[in-house]
Amino acid sequence: MLIGRPADIRSSEITPEGIYVRRRAFLRLTGTALLAGAVGPALGATACAAEELESGHEIDQRAQEKLTPFEDVTTYNNFYEFGTDKGDPSKLAASFKPQPWTVRVDGMVANPADYALEDFVKPHRVEERVYRMRCVEAWSMVIPWNGIPLRDVLRRVEPASSARYVAFTTVLRPSELPGQRRPVLDWPYTEGLRLDEAMHPLTILSTGLYGKSLLNQNGAPLRLVVPWKYGFKGIKSIVRITLTDREPPTAWNKAAPGEYGFYANVNPTVDHPRWSQAKERRIGEFRRRDTLMFNGYGDQVASMYSAMDLRKHY
């Protein structure tokens, strides 16, 4: 199903007014240009990422793509905690209470803690990033996110030198999340990244989109955004972040390991068993376009996987 926008509706009526006025600013945003400095080697940074941050990038052409309308971004969602239909999250999200909110950071860290959301976010600068997002079902969007670099949070808690992975857990509230009353997945939803992926400058914890706080259907109040991976890696409504030395189990990999791998890097040469990944359809458009390796972020992230067989480690 595609959500089209009637031709007689102006962009200013869909996009929040303040963001519409600042559209040119959003289009200038890039994943790396907003950041400065480099990640320390002990926390898994790549030399390539460090060089990009220190040298200063020219404007990234990805950011020149047309933004997906706010209405589509907030009504066409995969969030199985509400239901399996794309329209379920926006229809059923009103019952969910994202405030107050606590995030536990634990595991192999020097400073484990339970954070109230405001304390979790407050020490960090909330940045604006325009990212292309690609769903494993072969549709995509271009979304202006607000968020904090995940690496800033991890530096704050000081991962142990032996930590290799970061595990994430979604809230478990069947009374507010009707999808959790059905055994569609092994609840609560879990996800994970390698530590170097989590420390990469493109990886953010989003607190909003289009200049607004995250709506419930988009993963309020805190979700993961990793733009070179398929959308199911973007775990929503996070309540726990755990550092570990073992690859953590992830929800879709447990449910269907032959279809959903741990890495989930966007790769047009590795098809889903039930459909091709070579093409994608941008929400709001009818034409199909070529899928880009690493969703077009290969210059920034490919070096992390140079020694891996990406057909095996999909």
Provide key terms for this protein.
alpha+beta, 11 helices, seven-stranded mixed β-sheet, Sulfite Oxidase, Chain A, domain 2, 21% strand, 314 residues
Beta fraction of the residues? 15-25%
**What's the CATH first level?**
Alpha Beta
Task: List the domain count as a whole number.
Answer: 1
Radius of gyration: 18 Å
SSE-based structural type:
alpha+beta
State the CATH topology: Sulfite Oxidase, Chain A, domain 2
Low-confidence stretches: 1-62
Number of helices: 11
Basic shape:
globular
Describe the structure in your own words.
The protein is an alpha+beta fold and 314 residues long. It has one domain (11-305): Sulfite Oxidase, Chain A, domain 2, CATH 3.90.420. It has helices at residues 11-14, 17-21, 23-28, 47-55, 70-73, 88-92, 117-121, 150-157, 195-198, 251-255, 298-301; strands spanning 102-107, 113-116, 127-134, 139-149, 165-170, 190-194, 204-209, 212-213, 223-225, 238-244, 279-282, 288-290. The strands form 2 sheets. Strands 3, 4, 7, 8, 9, 11 and 12 form a 7-stranded mixed β-sheet that branches. A 5-stranded mixed β-sheet has the order 2-1-10-5-6. It starts with 10 loop residues before the first helix and ends in a 13-residue tail after the last helix. Residues 1-62 have low confidence and may be disordered.
